[in-house]
What does this fold into?
Amino acid sequence: MAALTEAELRSWIDRLAPRLIALSTGICRDRHRAEEIVQDSFVKLWNKPPDGGERAYPSWLRRVVTNASINALQRTRRHGPLPEYGEDRSMRRRDTVSEPMQSREDRDRLEEALGRLDPMKRTILLLRGAEGLSYDEIAAHLDIPVGTVMSRLNRARAALRDALAELSSEVGGPVFSFETHRDARAERA
Amino acid sequence: MNDRTDRISPAPPTTSDPAALPADCARFRGDLSAYLDGGMNDEERRAADTHVAACPNCRRLADEVEAAERVLALGLDEDAAEPLPAGFAGAILARTVHEAPVAGRIRRAPAATGGLVPWLGWVAAAALVVFNLAVWNVDGPAPPTSNGGGFDRAPATVPASWQVSATLAAPGASDAPAASVHEHDDFAALFSAATLLDTFAETTGDTGEAAAFASRVIAYDDLLPRLGAIARDLPAEPAATVELTRGLLEDLASGDPRTHARLRQRLAAGELTAALRRLEVRLAGSA
It folds into this structure.
């Protein structure tokens, strides 16, 4: 018996699906597949909502989407890439006219660097750097010990930085034009 | 707030060879996440800050990683601000709120008697595959090689492997072929077969005849459980694979144009051709 009403399901879709699609796209690098994964996840939510009630829905959905996205990428690699998605950047995300050019260059370079990482490194960077999850939350999402999160995150960050350095040496010029906020790091500490 | 707005120049890529680093740099890089994420105690923090102040390479490393994660976060925010594609929520509702009571759930046992109407959608999808397999194997018409829309279709001749896919889908026959061929590739081929045959039916307009055929093949209503049995041995999350296939067949039955568009793209990607070739090679090896 479904625990959700249609209106509730619609509301959760509206509130959570856009970000879940963005997260899934970041992991599996395929927006169309990400949309399918998120749709499947909401179907699972409807069929068997997690224990803990509505408060558990966002975390549960993100976890389901994260793991499905990793698995989808592994399946894609087994069967070969889908070049119509993988090579056409416009199909992965929409470039907006209003987006500052330098910011877009930063993003493109970062995406290029992320694409050189293995899925698990990319996933853990997204969960920490973009989603802002705690180590405990990341551990729960990926079903790994908390101690492993830090070591994996360290390796992922080092790999990202090396990939950016590689790109930088390939194209010449700086890694980022982006402003850095060292004071923000101190605040986070 | 004291923002630095200068561009970050690339530092030498030294993170991959920590053994060659000075001890302080190696220690800092080993603790990089604790440093960035506030996981250090006061003493550790002071030592790290002292090192960063004195070491331009480690300072640059921390800045680059932090800047990268800020770009990452902003990028995700921008992507998340995009509107949902048209029909996105509707497709979910169709599979949940508006789903038929017994719409071919894989975990359900097939209906022993009757049940034609509830199963019809699934039977139609299965029949679409079976019907076209029959057409191609018995009568042997070559599938179209182009639709004029710029994508190439799968092989112009029907490979013998279609028969195996059909056998796999047939009631009571799933055990025999499974012992001699790799189930994963069979599944992939069957998946691709459904894709191609749907496009074939769409192109030739045979869906009406396929629907009529569906009324005579109620026995095939266990196609999905058989797909589930195949998928159970897949290494990567069988439930997701089953769900993927169920969604595909559901979309095929409902004629979702977005699915058709995606399927065409996958055909263009050569996925189907590759799957068929894999299956043919395995069949040749197991013959």
